[in-house]
């Protein structure tokens, strides 16, 4: 019998919210009224957390759908913090209980239970508030030098401004993107690169909100590749829309640029998982590297860092990626290294330099904690 994934998510939500209620509400000692309010809030969260997953199936008006998404994603963020801190509290209390078997220290009930429960709630709220402020503020510019052996003098100082994982959708709209575009245009870049996950919705619902992308300005223009989220929301409709906005879409292909007498190859691959959605979109770094023209350096745009092994084999010098969000916040940052070879920043694989952006927007809960968003200004330098 086929399992319904939405029912499974709902069941898990009930189970985990029930665990939080069981472990925290009695220890908080709120009295009947406080207990009822706390239980009601957890019940509301239990319903709201799965709600964003249902939005694609709903026919709600845009404003109502966006309001539900905001409520659901905020609830998801607070719930994530509560769950992790509640687990840590229980592990700590279990440690004290084990220690009490050897030492005459009472740890059952009393002030420790109450104070630790209060601490979990207060820390969860603080983390969520700080994370919300971090996520919603305009991404800062991060300057990164890419040291390239034998780089021609004409290409030394060549600047690429990278945007990644903007996720225009239910909680990120035109105003948010407009501010990003204005900041990018103030950097006077040689090239703008967008490494996937631009959108979280259909062309019909987001056309007006992605329009600021047409205002991006640089010497050689804007180049972009698909991320996994484009495949969730109609990639075949988004590709012509991106081209209409003046962006050069690279699908396992490249463009050779002439810059002050030297040639630089900008390649781009479809998302690492693209072939699962459309076999013609199977990621192919070798095809993206292929050129009859002699070039001084090859730069690859690839949404996921795990394209790096194939990119190194194909002879690229630099790979620009995103996808990871730098972990974004707990507990997601614990799982990213299980899937990706690099989480954030500059790394090297053989001759290949891999820069992984923490992302310019965010996905899901509007929260960032110890993983700030970024607009990355990368500069080629000779060594």
Descriptive report:
This protein is 45% helix and 17% strand. The chain folds into 2 domains: 5-135, no CATH class; 139-382, 4-Layer Sandwich (Purple Acid Phosphatase, chain A, domain 2). The radius of gyration is 24 Å and the shape is elongated. The chain is of the alpha/beta class and 383 residues long. It is built from 13 helices and 12 strands.
Q: How many domain modules? A: 2
Beta percentage is 15-25%
Helical/strand content category: alpha/beta
Helical amount? 40-55%
Strand tally: 12
How big is the Rg?
24 Å
The H-and-E topology, N to C, reads as HHHHHEEHEHEHHEEEHHEHEHEEE
Helical segment count = 13
Strand order of the largest sheet: 1-12-2-3-4-5
Summarize the structure.
With 383 residues, this protein is of the alpha/beta class. The protein has helices at residues 5-28, 31-48, 51-54, 62-100, 110-136, 174-185, 203-210, 228-232, 235-244, 274-277, 285-289, 308-314, 332-339; strands at 140-148, 159-163, 191-195, 222-225, 248-249, 253-259, 262-268, 297-301, 318-321, 345-349, 352-356, 374-382.
Structural key phrases:
single chain, 383 residues, alpha/beta, Purple Acid Phosphatase, chain A, domain 2, 2 domains, 6-stranded mixed beta sheet, 45% helix, 17% strand
């Amino acid at each position: 019998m086929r399992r319904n994934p939405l029912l499974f998510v709902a069941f898990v939500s009930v189970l985990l919210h029930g665990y939080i209620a069981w472990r925290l509400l009695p220890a908080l000692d709120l009295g009947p009224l406080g207990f009822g309010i706390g239980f009601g809030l957890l019940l509301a969260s239990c319903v709201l957390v799965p709600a964003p997953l249902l939005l694609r199936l709903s026919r709600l008006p845009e404003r109502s759908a966006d309001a539900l998404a905001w409520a659901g994603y905020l609830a998801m963020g607070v719930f994530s913090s509560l769950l992790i801190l509640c687990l840590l509290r229980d592990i700590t209390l279990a440690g004290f209980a084990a220690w009490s078997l050897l030492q005459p220290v009472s740890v059952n009930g009393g002030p420790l239970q109450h104070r630790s429960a209060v601490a979990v709630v207060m820390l969860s709220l603080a983390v969520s508030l700080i994370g919300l402020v971090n996520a919603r503020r305009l991404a800062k510019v991060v300057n990164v030098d890419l040291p390239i052996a034998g780089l021609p003098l004409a290409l030394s100082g060549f600047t690429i401004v990278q945007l990644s994982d903007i996720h225009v959708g239910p909680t990120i709209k035109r105003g948010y993107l407009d501010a990003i575009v204005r900041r990018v245009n103030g950097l006077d870049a040689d090239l703008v690169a967008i490494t996937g996950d631009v959108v979280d919705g259909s062309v019909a619902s987001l056309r007006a909100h992605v329009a600021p992308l047409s205002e991006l300005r640089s010497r050689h223009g804007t180049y972009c590749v698909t991320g996994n989220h484009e495949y969730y929301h109609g990639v075949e409709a988004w590709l012509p829309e991106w081209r209409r906005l003046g962006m050069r879409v690279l699908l396992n292909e490249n463009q050779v640029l002439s810059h002050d007498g030297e040639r630089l190859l900008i390649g781009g691959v479809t998302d690492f998982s693209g072939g699962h959605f459309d076999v013609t979109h199977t990621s192919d770094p070798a095809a993206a590297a292929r050129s009859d023209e002699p070039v001084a350096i090859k730069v690859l745009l690839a949404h996921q860092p795990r394209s790096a092994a194939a990119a190194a084999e194909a002879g690229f010098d630099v790979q620009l990626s995103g996808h990871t969000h730098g972990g974004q916040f707990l507990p997601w940052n614990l799982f990213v290294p299980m899937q990706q070879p690099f989480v954030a920043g500059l790394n090297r694989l053989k001759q290949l330099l891999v820069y992984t952006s923490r992302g310019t927007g965010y996905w899901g809960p509007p929260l960032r904690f110890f993983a700030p968003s970024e607009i990355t200004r990368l500069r080629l330098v000779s060594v």
